[in-house]
Design a protein that fits this description.
Layout: E1 6-10, H1 14-26, E2 30-34, H2 37-47, E3 51-55, H3 63-72, E4 78-83, H4 87-99, E5 104-109, H5 114-128, H6 133-142, E6 145-154, E7 163-174, E8 178-180, H7 186-191, H8 195-215, E9 222-225, H9 236-246, E10 254-259, H10 260-265, H11 267-279, E11 283-289, H12 296-301, E12 306-309, H13 311-314, H14 321-336, E13 341-343, H15 349-357, E14 362-363, H16 374-381
Parallel strand pairs: 1-2, 1-3, 3-4, 4-5, 7-9, 9-10, 10-11, 11-12, 12-13, 13-14
Antiparallel strand pairs: 6-7, 6-14, 7-8
Helix pairs in contact: 9-11
């Protein structure tokens, strides 16, 4: 069954379902609908939706229960929420969907106008064109994947923010869609088992980049996200060590990032793999901490070299005293465990200063720099202080 332009409407009001259906079918969507949890499974299986329009306020099973079920299924369909609830409830529901790793595409305030619905559906209609598993498989094979790099900075030097590393973030240079961001194809890669080959390609590109930067007298560690699939592959440490030997790269310059959800899925294999990586001098960072439900007991038992606070913990720091209390407490705990912390999703100067004031060591986010191609990253680094590795420099102006 084609994966393009298939809409599942979940709403308990027949008139609204009919209204949504008429507009969507006029736009070329194939549509299924359901009104309660009991009919959801049949409709979902029959349609294999690429877009879900979900009402949050329903009498028997509310929209949050549906989001939870979609997360359990590993749903890759774009999710649009519709509701008459206040903005705070809507924002919380949107954030919950993101925590469940669902492709959330915004909220439509009821009553939904024709223009608003058409605009929202047009966006997801267009973004799905050409984004298929077959096209992605060809993209991996034909070298269409590109890697952007987001600087990681040190917060302990006032407003100087010296660079201490970079995170590799994949993009797809699609032949007709242009540059496709990862949230458009990573869920599909995970669903179709392409995530393994995709990650291997990102690791290869990163190894080449480390080699190229070394030739330009730049020595900065790069972190690469591993898929949950790779945390069950006991051959991974040896394959990574072989890759580093092939490119003659110091193992300390490669950091692997794993999500807490992936690490906790099979704690036995994950501990085996991560311990062997550390024995081979490859650093291990736990990504997205705070977005899942892992046990702190398991975390301190794992051979981690860094913990990265998820952006969901950081974005509310500016305006929420409760968020500041939680982050401050977690930082104090990690200091006792001697586990360095990096804050992701820093978008304002106020957030950066707050993190500095409570002792966070490193950070990433749009406030410091967006992800950028390798050549732009090198230009960005010129003239800035670098604290990545002992020999790190970017010509004379970037020397330590």
């Amino acid at each position: 069954m084609s994966r393009q332009n298939r809409l599942l409407i979940i709403d308990d009001e027949p008139e609204i379902r009919a209204y949504f259906r008429d507009i969507a079918e006029e736009m070329g969507f194939v549509v299924e609908e359901c009104s309660e949890f009991e009919s959801f499974d049949r409709a979902y299986a029959a349609l294999e939706p690429t877009v879900i329009l979900l009402d949050l306020s329903m009498p028997d099973h509310d929209g949050i229960e549906f989001l939870r079920e979609l997360g359990r299924r590993g749903c890759t369909a774009a999710v649009l929420l519709s509701s008459g609830q206040d903005e705070r409830v809507l924002a919380t529901a949107q954030r919950l969907g993101e925590m469940l790793k669902l492709p959330m595409r915004g909220v439509l305030q009821k009553p939904v106008s024709v223009i608003d619905l058409e605009t929202a559906l047009e966006e997801v209609f267009v973004e799905s064109a050409g984004i298929t598993s077959e096209a992605l498989e060809n993209a991996i094979r034909n070298g269409e994947l590109v890697v952007y790099y987001q600087p990681k900075v040190d917060l302990r030097f006032g407003d100087e923010y010296p660079i201490v590393g970079a995170e590799a973030l994949v993009r797809w240079q699609h032949p007709t869609r242009g540059l496709v961001p990862p949230d458009r194809f990573i869920p599909m890669a995970e669903e179709t088992a392409l995530i393994g080959p995709l990650t291997e390609e990102v690791l290869r590109i990163t190894a080449e980049q480390l080699t190229d930067w070394r030739r330009q007298n730049v020595s900065l560690p790069i972190s690469v996200n591993l898929s949950p699939l790779q945390l069950t592959d006991l051959t991974l440490p040896d394959r990574l060590a072989s890759l580093l030997r092939t490119y003659q790269i110091d193992p300390r310059l490669l950091i692997v990032e794993v999500t807490e959800q992936a690490a906790m899925a099979d704690i036995g294999k994950a501990t085996d793999i991560l311990t062997r990586l550390r024995l081979k001098s490859i650093e291990v960072s736990l990504d997205d901490f705070g977005a899942g439900f892992s046990s702190l007991v398991e975390i301190y038992r794992m051979p981690l070299s860094e913990l990265k606070f998820d952006r969901s913990l950081i974005t509310d720091l500016d305006r929420d005293s409760g968020a500041r209390t939680v982050v401050k407490g977690l930082l104090a705990l990690m200091k006792e465990l001697k586990l360095p912390v990096c804050a992701e999703g820093v978008e304002t100067a106020k957030t950066a200063r707050l993190l500095q004031s409570i002792g966070c060591e490193t950070a990433q986010g749009f406030y410091f720099a967006r992800p950028m191609p390798a050549y732009e990253f090198l230009e960005f680094a010129k003239g800035r202080r670098i604290l990545g590795a002992p020999e790190a420099s970017v010509g004379a102006s970037g020397a330590r």
